[in-house]
Every structure is written in C-alpha cells, then in structure tokens.
Amino acid sequence: MEVDNNVPKSARRSVDYHPTVWGDYFLAYDSSLTEINHQDEQEVERLRDEVRKMLVAAHATSTRKLLELIDNTQRLGVSHHFAKEIEESLKHIYNMSCDEFDDPNNLETVSLQFRLLRQAGYNVSCDVFQTFKEDEGNFKEELIRNVKGILSLYEAAHLGVGGEDILEEALGFSTKCLKSMVPKLSGYLVTQVIHALKMPIRRTLARVAARQYINIYQDNPEHDKVLLQFARLDFNMLQKVHQKELSDITRYIINNDIK
C-alpha cells in the first residue's frame, strides 16, 4: 500500500514519542567502535573450533573434564555455540550413569553432575548425596575442608524442589561452611565464594553472570587459555552488536520525536 502524499498535514496522525531517557548518548556508538573487523571474526571461528574439539575429546576420555568444560562454557556465556555437543554429552552421561554417578565419592564431581543434568531437565535423584552423610544423618565433618566440593554442593542444592529434604539440608550446611571459609581463603577462590553467596548460579541472568565469571575464571590458575580467549572475544563482539542496535534505536526515536 502506497503512502498518499497529498493528504493535508492537518489530517495526518501525529505520534507523540516520549524522549528517550538516554538522550543521544548511544549515538556516539554509531562509529567504527561498533564495527566487527574480519580478523576478529576469523579468530572467533578458530577458537570456536578449538573449544568444540576440546568437548569432543573430553567426551571420549573423562566425564569429569567434560562436566567441568560444559560448566565453564555455560558460565562464560558461550555454550550456545555448542548446544548440540553439550546436549549429546549430557544425554550420554545421564544414560550411562542415571543414579550411579561416575565418581560417587567425589563431592565436587557428583554435585556438578547433578546440577548440570537437572539444569538440562533430567530427573536425577537427590539420593546421590546420601553418600556424604554420616550414619546419624548429618553431612560428614570432613567435607568442611573441601572448598571446591562444598561450593559445588551449594550450587547444586539450589536445584532442589519441594520435599527434597536432603537438598534443603545441603543448602544450609554448605552455606554455613562457605561463610566460615571466607576469612581463611584468598585469591580467586575467595572471590568465587563471596560471589556465589551473594548470587548463586540459579538466580543470575546469563549475560550478566558471564561478564562477572570471565573475571573470576581468568584468575583461576587452572583456566583454559583457549576457552578464556574465546569467551572474551565472543562477549566483546556481542557487546558491539548490542551497542550498534541501541545506536540505531536511539537515532530512530530521536528522528521520529514529533512534537
């Protein structure tokens, strides 16, 4: 349908756009700062292929390494690039283990496996945590010295549903342990624990959490350089896309701000 340019201006509808609260702030992003250069695109492609190979290799060799890699890709905000590989890996892990976990006496691994499978929608029984309780029904005191294990248990406990008493107990136990650990920790571990206590994974927005986790992950002496570099580049490229979109939206609103 063509626009009739002969309609008198007085008869045309006018739209009263409210001025954007950002003013012309985002117009500044409509520049070379928002351009994604070809070299960065190629590097992202190369790094993505490297991480994909890492996932395939871990799938074939070590369940623990695979779980850790999947967890890091999710927390760094790049798991969407490997959705198929991650889905197949978690399905394989679930079908192979079900209620019998790969390393039933390793609190960190069991908790991570439980959380990742539940996050993916698998019906995993919380009875796997009975191994870590004493005959009297309390969680074993020896676990208190296992910082990574307690942190992993804490994150897993947030995936509990109504009636799962053991996960409620696990949440209370792990929260108390982590708070008592803070004064004794240093480096990236204390940062990670404090952050987890303020905002557990279950309650964070993915993109916001990714930006924060990039900083935490880079301070981990065991971080993977390829994965970290990929996460940084991918995040920066996505930011440029969002900045360009905001610039375009702002320009549109200002140009159409008819009084």
UniProtKB/TrEMBL annotation:
Tell whether Lyase is among the UniProt keywords: yes
One Pfam family from the UniProt entry?
Terpene_synth
The keyword Lyase is assigned to this record: yes
Per UniProt, the keywords (alphabetical) are:
Lyase
* Domain of life (superkingdom): Eukaryota
Q: Which Gene3D superfamilies match?
A: Farnesyl Diphosphate Synthase, Terpene synthase, N-terminal domain
The biological processes this protein is annotated with in GO are: terpenoid biosynthetic process
Q: Name one GO molecular function term.
A: terpene synthase activity
Per the database record, which ranges form the Terpene synthase N-terminal domain? 21-197
Q: Which SUPFAM superfamilies match?
A: Terpenoid cyclases/Protein prenyltransferases (SSF48239), Terpenoid synthases (SSF48576)
Its required cofactor(s), as named, are: Mg(2+)
Q: Tell me the route in metabolism or biology where this protein functions.
A: Secondary metabolite biosynthesis; terpenoid biosynthesis
This chain belongs to the protein called (-)-germacrene D synthase
Source species: Capsicum baccatum (Peruvian pepper)
